[in-house]
Amino acid sequence: MMKNPIAKQVKHLILCLIAIALMAFPASAAGVRGKITSIDSGSISGWAWNPDNTNDVQNVEIHIFQAGKAEPIQYLHVTADKYREDLVADLKDGWHGFRAEVNWSQFNCSDFKVKAYVVKDGSYYLLGDAVSYSRTSGSSSKAPASSVKPAAQPAAQVTMVQPPSSAPTGASPQLVPISNTETPLGIFSISGYCGCDACGSGTGLTYSGVIAQANHTIAADLSILPLGSKVRVGNVIYTVEDMGSGIQGKMLDIYYNSHEEAMAHGRTQQEAYLVQ
User: Fold this and answer.
1) For residue 231, what is the domain's CATH number?
2) What is the dihedral of CA 276, 230, 110, 117, to 10 degrees?
3) Is 119 inside a domain boundary?
């Protein structure tokens, strides 16, 4: 007579455990897998895929840390839709690679830690382990680029705390912490430019005399932001190295490597912060 109540209790316990597991790992991203496979002097590469839906292209957010520090110093956003021959043997589909360009010389440090996450429905899924990189030696501690089998476990879900953002709808999450070393400058009208004749002198040189760099150089009204000012917009900390006749008041012009990228930026309204 005791078998039925016990069986019901066991069944109820199993159903509860299944419900908890489903809440901990959303079905849309629970099976996401991947990792960083290489870091070199100009880029970070890896792969990410959803084995339950191979047509599901993953949005990857890369966090770059100074070694020994808890807060990231830069965020990069890429999609895992690049073809990699080494993925075909294990995944049967090579279109799940990602590659992000990075200018290590913009940082005032030599040793870094890098993490990659898949971002889905506001949740973050860590891809493999953090990878260390040394700008001095050019070496990194990483898994072999040709092997994808070690990353067989689904990506771990990570909760991220996001400060309020004034970025336009559809922009990437603004995750850089606002600390007491930053001073809000207000909303700026922001556009893009490059080193071509249409955008500037065509020489690639800035008003300060240095060569403009993507993810680093920004033009501003020098009466408001003098040369050398560090300004955070979104996920990137820029340095004021340039000016322009049309850049007056609360306006900024971000440097891009190509005219197409500069024009694709358009004109946005975003909060800017002065970094001390």
Assistant:
1) 2.40.40.10
2) 100
3) yes
Q: How far apart are CA 130 and CA 36, in angstroms?
A: 8
Which strand (E) or helix (H) includes residue 112?
A: strand 111-120
Q: How far apart are CA 81 and CA 24, in angstroms?
A: 27
Residues 20, 25, 28, 31, Cα dihedral to 10°: -130
The DSSP H or E segment spanning 19 is helix 3-24
Give the separation between CA 21 and CA 16, rounded to whole angstroms.
9
Task: Write out pLDDT tens, residues 155-166.
Answer: 665 544 433 333
Kindly report, residue by residue over 63-73, the tens digit of the pLDDT: 999 988 888 88
Based on the fold, state whether residues 226 and 134 are members of the same structural domain.
no
> Average pLDDT, stretch 80-98?
88
Alpha helices in 165-268 (DSSP H): 259-265
| Cβ-Cβ contacts under 8 Å for 53 (sequence gap 6 or more) | none
Amino acid at 275: V
State which residues form the domain around 151. Answer: 33-158
pTM for this model (two decimals): 0.48
One-letter amino acid for residue 163 of the chain? P
